Amino acid sequence: QLHSDQDKGDGSLKYILSGDGAGDLFIINENTGDIQATKRLDREEKPVYILRAQAINRRTGRPVEPESEFIIKIHDINDNEPMFTKDVYNASIPEMSDVGTFVVQVTATDADDPTYGNSAKVVYSILQGQPYFSVESETGIIKTALLNMDRENREQYQVVIQAKDMGGQMGGLSGTTTVNITLTDVNDNPPRFPQSTYQFRAPESTPLDSPVGRIKANDADVDENAEIEYSITEGDGYDMFGITTDKETQEGIITVKKALDFENKNLYILKVEATNTHVDPRFLYLGPFKDSATVRIQVEDVDEPPMFSRPAYIMEVKEDVPLNSIIGTVTAQDPDAAKNPVKYSVDRHTDMDRVFNINSGNGSIFTSKPLDRETLLWHNITVIAAEINNPKQSSRVPVFIKVLDVNDNAPEFAMFYETFVCENAKAEQLIQTLSAVDKDDSYNGHQFSFSLAPEAASSSNFTLQDNRDNTAGIFTRKTRYNRHETSTYFLPVVISDNDYPIQSSTETVTIRVCACDHRGKMLSCNAEALIHPTGLSTGALIAILLCIIILLVTVVLFAALRRQRKKEPLIISKEDIRDNIVSYNDEGGGEEDTQAFDIGTLRNPEAIDDNKLRRDIVPETLFMPRRTATARDNTDVRDFINQRLKENDTDPTAPPYDSLATYAYEGNGSVAESLSSLESVTTDGDQDYDYLSDWGPRFKKLADMYGSMDSDKDS
């Protein structure tokens, strides 16, 4: 309560309040000066308030005393419970940890004043999680309290920790938190096979690296602590089988390393060992971290194809062997216990020409066609062996047959020899060197001998000298040659080899006689084609060029004429021809068709359109149309034509030559009427043609024709 010495109790003074919370948290009675709090105060929100109070004259509003300041302090009470920094804690420790191993530290705070009493003094205790864990009361550190906690038995633990103020005394406030503790794995469990013996079956035809079976050793650990490596430590199938580890399932996969053979061995016994790859030395005392088991593999018999005694066969045969000669034998047997018989055949895809054949019973290969080493040195065929009872069971083997050479080819010239000799050649002059080749093979090298044929040895104009090095030279025998007497000599040469049997052939050398200069250079002879390059002469080239030019000129002229014809009129003339015969290909309606042509145009030239020009020619000079007198309607055609003829004769613009004018007007008719015999067919009776004889010599032919017909009828 505030009170001023100037207050006489008559109500003339008024108390006012200002500062922290004035009018909100704190109010003052302006008459009595009592200060009151309007609501509950919280020290944790604001522990100190500073207020100012003053007494003023109610009437004048002037202060009667100086302003007074006072401080209000909020005393703390234990109204806040401890609060943990996390609602849930998560922690982990390795399994099998020692007692007292640190797990995690929890922390709780109290908002009360730590300097006033024990309201903020917090003590920790464990409400749930014993006897596995403990907590230090002052620090909140959680530790293990039980030895050898095993993850494989229990992996998750939930611990409840309490924090209580007032030093844990009665009446204190408390808060709790949950700590989830997980035991992590360590390699404290060795692998163990669930059974000591495993049985598997494998057909003897199982391909290499194919799986036979799977085995698995159990390990209670997880992740890398459960990784297992499998191995075959001993057994009679140590080198026949292998084992690998499936990283996903940690299983041991037994595979075939070598081909199985039921007839050779049908049972294998293996000892397989499973070992942890990551061993923790701290737990070696728990025993060896490996285990072993026995695996028995039974090999099953299958129907196998025949097997050849060799993977491939190489045979040799001379090219001159007779047909059906045996060159070698292949052998195959059924590896099964039944020992089924085998038949042999040649794969014809490898012997399309059927050069070889095989005995289906004993596998003997023999020739069926002649061989030629020079054509094909090696023959690569495939032989098939199949079981007679089951032909699907078959196998193949390659057979390489080498054809050995025999001396069956005679030597021949290395090239075609055609040479020349000069007319002025001297005797014993070398004109050509010969060489030979032989298709046959020679182990010691070829040795050829050259000689002239017997028929030419004595009478030849040339001699042959064997150089003993597989070459020979042709020399002249006389001094001069005359090409006009003999232009060409054909010299037969015999070539022989030294192999057995000796082979020889006769080759011909063509020698032409040519004119040469004093230095022996050929000038001309019949063998110009030998020394001049093949080509056309200059005269031939000029003739060909002229032909091409003439052909081009002809084509150009032909094109020009065609273009000029397109420009010419229908009637080729440079003159203005008034009347022309024009064909319209229009049949018309005959005499009854009065609309086909208006004859009035002929009688009235003024009816013609003066502006219409001919469309078939280009007009050169346009003359004014000449006006003609109009003909009367009763004018005879003869007079009309005579009038037009006279006008054209006197017309200076008319052409200088006669032209045919067609007026399409028949006239008044003939006194003789129609001369046609077409109507005679329609008459009922025979006509009398005697009157034709009265018409004169012009109709004598008709009179003879028709008169004779009447005489025939009478007869």
UniProtKB/TrEMBL annotation:
Transmembrane residue ranges: 540-561
Pfam family, one: CADH_Y-type_LIR
UniProt keywords, alphabetically: Calcium, Cell adhesion, Cell membrane, Cleavage on pair of basic residues, Glycoprotein, Membrane, Metal-binding, Repeat, Signal, Transmembrane, Transmembrane helix
The keyword Transmembrane appears for this protein: yes
Domain Cadherin: 4-84, 85-193, 194-308, 309-413, 413-523
Gene Ontology CC terms: adherens junction; catenin complex
Main localization, broad class: membrane
Membrane topology, from the record: Single-pass type I membrane protein
GO BP terms in the entry: adherens junction organization; calcium-dependent cell-cell adhesion via plasma membrane cell adhesion molecules; cell migration; cell morphogenesis; cell-cell adhesion mediated by cadherin; cell-cell junction assembly; homophilic cell adhesion via plasma membrane adhesion molecules; synaptic membrane adhesion
Location(s) in or outside the cell: Cell membrane
MF terms (GO), sorted A to Z: beta-catenin binding; cadherin binding; calcium ion binding
Keyword Methyltransferase: no
Function: Cadherins are calcium-dependent cell adhesion proteins. They preferentially interact with themselves in a homophilic manner in connecting cells; cadherins may thus contribute to the sorting of heterogeneous cell types.
Protein name: Cadherin-6
Organism: Erpornis zantholeuca
Gene, per the UniProt record: Cdh6
